[in-house]
UniProtKB/TrEMBL annotation:
SUPFAM superfamilies: NAD(P)-binding Rossmann-fold domains. GO terms for molecular function: oxidoreductase activity. Belongs to the short-chain dehydrogenases/reductases (SDR) family. It comes from Neogemmobacter tilapiae. Residues 13-205 form the Ketoreductase domain. This is 3-oxoacyl-ACP reductase. PANTHER family: OXIDOREDUCTASE, SHORT-CHAIN DEHYDROGENASE/REDUCTASE FAMILY (AFU_ORTHOLOGUE AFUA_5G02870), SHORT-CHAIN DEHYDROGENASE_REDUCTASE FAMILY PROTEIN. It holds the Pfam family adh_short_C2.
Length: 256
């Protein structure tokens, strides 16, 4: 990540990242740490070892808070803990998600509700939790991670794709509601990013080959490919950008 642009306004800024200890989230945490930001991240699994690694690697230790993001009370408490440690959260990155494959014909109401809780409801309540601090601080930036899966369209995980479409609507309505407070909300929609989880579970050679044929840029996307766009949306360099969807997918879908 030595080639990342530097955004001076992110230095010292309080950043809260959901799912910030693995996959794309781990690269996001590292990217913000390298900007000099004060980063707190949440996930269910123990992130202490990752925090240690980041402290050694960047000289800037993130705050790990154990949290199940589907537990709204715990999520709000984590935001409060981060604000106590680092000051009001000025950047929220709603990154945590689960794209578990689910058969439409056997999907249960509990399955559907679980997917909504992880992939959409947690986004709303994380935003709700940071809004008062952002308003008091004079503004902030929310980056909501979605996916190009609802634009393609894809299949095999209908609740996840439904949630991703909902994230765009959530972003746009709250951008309109809180723009006067200088709180910006944007969506970042990655394509297929080959995280360790993706490589282990779903990156069969035929599927990878078919996807790369769709991409204009033929390299397999890595988590670090998403960091630059996230930093831009978080920083004051995008201060007049809100309610938008930024796609980073190697050229699979088009917007506009």
């Amino acid at each position: 990540m030595d080639n990342l642009a530097i955004y001076p306004d992110l230095k010292g800024r309080s950043v809260f990242i959901t799912g910030g200890g693995s996959g794309i989230g781990a690269s996001l945490t590292e990217g913000f740490l390298r900007q000099g930001a004060k980063v707190a991240f949440v996930q269910r699994r123990d992130g202490t070892a990752f925090a240690d690694e980041m402290a050694e690697k960047t000289g800037n230790r993130p705050l790990f808070i154990a949290c199940d993001i589907t537990d709204t009370a715990a999520l709000k408490a984590a935001v409060d803990q981060a604000a106590t440690a680092h000051g009001p959260v000025r950047v929220l990155v709603n990154n945590a998600a689960n794209d578990q494959r689910q058969d439409t014909l056997t999907l249960t109401p509990d399955d559907f509700d679980w997917s909504m809780a992880v992939n959409l409801r947690s986004y709303f309540f994380a935003i709700q939790a940071v809004l008062p601090g952002m308003k008091a601080a004079g503004g902030g930036s929310v980056v909501n991670f979605s996916s190009i899966s609802y634009m393609m369209p894809d299949s095999g995980y209908a609740p996840y794709i439904t949630a991703n479409a909902g994230i765009t609507g959530l972003t746009r309505t709250l951008a309109a509601e809180f723009g006067a407070d200088r709180i910006r909300l944007n969506t970042l929609a990655p394509g297929w990013v080959f995280t360790p989880k993706q490589l282990e579970l779903w990156a069969e050679p035929a599927a990878v080959e078919a996807h790369l044929k769709r991409q204009k840029l033929k390299d397999m996307m890595k988590p670090e490919d998403i960091v630059g766009g996230t930093l831009f949306l978080a920083s004051d360099s995008s201060r007049m950008m809100t309610g938008q969807v930024m796609v980073i997918d190697g050229g699979v879908v088009v917007t506009g």
